[in-house]
Amino acid sequence: MRRSGIPSLFVSLLVLCGILLSACGGSAPSTSGGNSSSSAPKSVTLVTDIGGLNDQSFNHSAYIGYSKALDELKFRRQVIESKSQNDYVGNLTRAAQTSDLVIGVGFLMATAMDQVAKANPTKSFALIDACPSDAKGNCDPLKNVAPLFFKEQQAGCLAGVVAGQMEALGKSKVSKLLGNNTIGAVGGQPIPPVDHYIAGYQFCARKVDPNVTVKVSYSNSFDNTAACQDIANNQIGTYKADIIFQVAGGCGVGALQAAKAKGVYSIGVDSDQSHVNDSVITSAVKRVDQAVYVTIKNFEAGKFSSNPPAFDLTNDGVGYAPLSSQVPAEIKTTVDKYIQDIKSGALQVPDTVQK
Question: Which positions carry the signal peptide feature in this UniProt record (predicted)?
């Protein structure tokens, strides 16, 4: 009898252990859908350029993409706003200490990004508009940095088509023209992404209207609104520029304000800036939001690349905002034709400003 009781007790213990394990969920497979919290990045940090989140342009667009990814993936939010170029190294370092992925917004961070990424080889970084660069400005390819480039010249071209054709149509179709067949561009600093926009604007405006004059000036600032306003006022007052294209981030809002005050037209940059005022007839759009969102999603999926493709018209990386009702209807047909020519390779848009 004793010998037969021992196996029974052993079986009972096994059953009890099984019940306890089941109650704790220790071996049961997960049946919940979507990404588990362990699969998402523990933190992604966005480090802005000096224009800040409220520049209504470049940094703001980056934040839109960041917020979209945050809503989907539920990672820990951290945004650091740079107040001056001296902040870059410190801000990027602070971000790297607490994040899996750090996204730097802007060309001017290239040298700081190179320094910080080298010091944190186990962390991943992305840099909008530039590659990490050494002290001499040479690209320094790093396996943990993804440079996010755009073909801004394509978006600038579309803005130039709008401006050039409005000039070509003349006052009979566009009554607010001042009559000097001149348009303007107000750049921030003469750095590659700014010049790419202006180069495309120049090229396509002249392609549509070979007689148009394009005035180009730089404020050497991305946040001094008054400086861009002064330049635009000079282009309008001295040269009778009919259309002002701003390529200066938050500073460029001043150029849009000058156009409104002087009763001429303006073109925004990076995102749709029609909300600024009704002088804005379209905007040359750079989908910084899309680049940030895609980069975070790829990182979460284990597809981080240090050599991502450029963002252009073919992948919806650049484009133009809807045209204002002030723009003659036939101009949209011309713009869309240019888009097709660029996508097909029939038209190559230069990225160098002509003096």
Answer: 1-23
